[in-house]
Write a structure and sequence with these properties.
Blueprint: E1 5-12, E2 43-44, E3 50-51, E4 57-60, E5 77-83, H1 87-92
Length: 95
């Protein structure tokens, strides 16, 4: 059986998850200084918001036990896409 995937997109590097796209319980560092690639470079601020750091790409969201997170409603594995914050803006200026 093929696993279904829910891709969380719309996040850029070095930004706060204002829209709360990342579900609570996703593994993340407690500060910017402790980020690791296995957690997609995520960290949590003092107010409980997730932030992205300098990591870009696509990866599985993991819980604090290291297991891939699954959407409880759709039973889809959760993947996160982080894009560079300057890439698309500079493409528009290339004309």
């Amino acid at each position: 059986m093929k696993s279904k995937v829910k891709l969380i997109s719309g996040l850029k590097d070095w930004n706060r998850d204002y829209e709360k796209l990342i579900p609570k319980g996703a593994s993340a560092a407690k500060s910017m200084h402790g980020v690791i690639p296995d957690e997609m470079g995520l960290y949590i601020d003092e107010k409980g918001y997730y932030h992205t750091s300098g990591y870009v790409g696509v990866g599985w969201l993991k819980d604090y036990q290291g297991k891939t997170m699954v959407d409880p409603v759709s039973d889809e594995k959760l993947a996160l896409m982080i894009i560079p914050r300057f890439f698309f803006e500079s493409m528009g200026n290339a004309h």
